[in-house]
Design the sequence.
């Protein structure tokens, strides 16, 4: 009987320790972090019809801004999409600079919280993501 209790205590302690290590690992992996390789995508909606010449001028201007990685300008939908390094600039700064450089009525597109929550069905249903959210609420 004494040997069974000892085995049960060691087994329970090992399982508890491994569970804590797994929880810490999940928390560490899922936490948001930005480094010099991190890229963020943003979108500017222009409230005016753009021509291909306008799109070319916008793209050339955007590529000369600090921290911009890639730019796509669609004159059919009047949308500017760009990626940038968040350690060098912000989407709001680029949008403000864009508005002051061009006479276009424009604003940065920011999705609603509801859109963000329904954006990726894999993350919303993934077991590890649910564990991360649970641990994040506790901490």
Sequence:
């Amino acid at each position: 009987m004494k040997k069974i209790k000892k085995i049960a205590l060691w087994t329970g302690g090992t399982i508890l320790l491994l569970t804590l290590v797994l929880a810490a690992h999940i928390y560490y992996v899922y936490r948001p972090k930005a480094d010099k390789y991190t890229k963020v995508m943003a979108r500017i909606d222009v409230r005016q019809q753009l021509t291909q010449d306008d799109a070319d001028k916008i793209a050339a201007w955007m590529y000369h801004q600090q921290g911009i990685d890639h730019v796509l300008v669609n004159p059919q939908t009047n949308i500017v999409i760009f990626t940038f390094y968040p350690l060098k600039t912000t989407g709001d700064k680029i949008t403000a600079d864009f508005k002051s450089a061009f006479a276009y009525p424009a604003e940065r597109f920011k999705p609603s919280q509801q859109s963000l929550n329904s954006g990726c069905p894999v993350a919303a249903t993934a077991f590890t993501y649910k564990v991360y959210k649970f641990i994040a609420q506790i901490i």
